[in-house]
């Protein structure tokens, strides 16, 4: 995607050909900063602190983290240690495991002297694959926006999204936002309601930032405004991403997604989930019972970071000192509340039959 006319991705190899460049998302929207990763530990730290976030980008970053580890030591022991360290960074997004397993499977079969070059080739293949996948998600999701447009007598198609599932989360294009970008670039009038997405405010700081840079009309709203907007006919469809999807179509996404799906069902608003095949966990059937939900630090709830009138970035307390806070990072939306799943292979019902129809090779896996 483009930032002020310049094309960027969320991760890329630096000019030296081996270190990894990322956009430090913890400094957006106030400061545009590119960070350089040189070790597997730095890659792990970037994932844990959410300098990179979003399921596809986490997977790509972990893949490059293995490359950085093998540059120092390409032994079996080093490969396993780096794999385990990176896998432990975040528990909910399944792309992390998927990318690391793809890397390890290829590299284990090679003698150590051949592993570094092969690891970089494999990591690049994973990153490029995610870009192509998100582009196709955009193509399929565009049809849903076109359908909504045909059903309107006038005005833009109003789309509500939650958290950030744009190109910042996915190397390029995004999942939930890919159809929006495709529609906007095709000249279809669109408007995006952007949930702030407490407690880390990824909607306010990231989604609003990237939509603004691309020129897409949007309005930031408080998380609890979504139901109100749907009741009044101001939302034509919801599109969100997912960090893990079960084989039966349950989806785990940023905390608050479940409430949007409930409101959408009550208001008769279509609720779509956009995802790459790498986000489907075929080993899990019941999302509520089987998907681990990451519990993050209480400070994300009790404090907030912003820019002061003087232009300084500061973190301030929202709650009385010592207030206990719980911080589940994700919730699970059952398949029964999902209108359709939008994948790189097409659109399907949120069900095991629907997913197997698009991924028939999984039936014998």
TrEMBL record:
GO terms for molecular function: S-methyl-5-thioribose-1-phosphate isomerase activity. The record marks 163 as: Transition state stabilizer. Pathway: Amino-acid biosynthesis; L-methionine biosynthesis via salvage pathway; L-methionine from S-methyl-5-thio-alpha-D-ribose 1-phosphate: step 1/6. It catalyses: 5-deoxy-alpha-D-ribose 1-phosphate = 5-deoxy-D-ribulose 1-phosphate; 5-(methylsulfanyl)-alpha-D-ribose 1-phosphate = 5-(methylsulfanyl)-D-ribulose 1-phosphate. It holds the Pfam family IF-2B. GO terms for biological process: L-methionine salvage from methylthioadenosine. Belongs to the EIF-2B alpha/beta/delta subunits family. MtnA subfamily. Catalyzes the interconversion of methylthioribose-1-phosphate (MTR-1-P) into methylthioribulose-1-phosphate (MTRu-1-P). Also catalyzes the interconversion of 5-deoxyribose 1-phosphate and 5-deoxyribulose 1-phosphate. Part of a bifunctional DHAP-shunt salvage pathway for SAM by-products. This is Methylthioribose-1-phosphate isomerase. It comes from Thiohalorhabdus denitrificans.
